[in-house]
Amino acid sequence: MSGDQACDAYAALIDQVGRLTNVVEAIGNGIARPTGQSLARWQVLAEIENEAAPVGAIAHRLGHTRQSVQRVADLLVDDELACTQLALRTTEGLDPERLDLARETLGELQRRLEAELP
Question: What torsion do the CA atoms of 46, 21, 32, 59 make, to the nearest 10 degrees?
């Protein structure tokens, strides 16, 4: 793949990630709204769905401040909330290896972009 092709593929991927982010946000807010929740609460729940994690680590992964995640985590503990089954429904039939590759690729792009931050 030439440099121009890689740049074009990169631009298309970033565009797709932005579109996906909008859909995830809309779904998250739609799921959360009837129960008085927010997307932030839903994101924190998703981060701890399979295992507990320190608030600082969750904040870093989500790109939020530690204090904002701590506030959300405290409210989730107070409310004794459980996770939804959304992840199971939306990943049915998908190859876990492809999902892992996508995650790894996005993680690498994130690290490279973070290196460009002032």
Answer: 40
Angstrom distance (rounded) from CA 79 to CA 39: 16
**pLDDT over 70 for what percent of the chain?**
86
Please name the residues in contact with 73: beta carbons below 8 A apart, sequence gap of 6 or more. Answer: 44, 55, 58
* 63/112 Cα distance (integer angstroms): 15
Average pLDDT, the chain: 80
The residue ranking higher by pLDDT, 18 or 82, is 18
Q: Where are the alpha helices (DSSP H) in 1-118?
A: 3-32, 39-47, 55-62, 66-79, 86-91, 96-115
Closest CA to 21 of 46, 41, 37, 39: 39
Confidence of residue 88 (pLDDT cuts 50, 70, 90): low
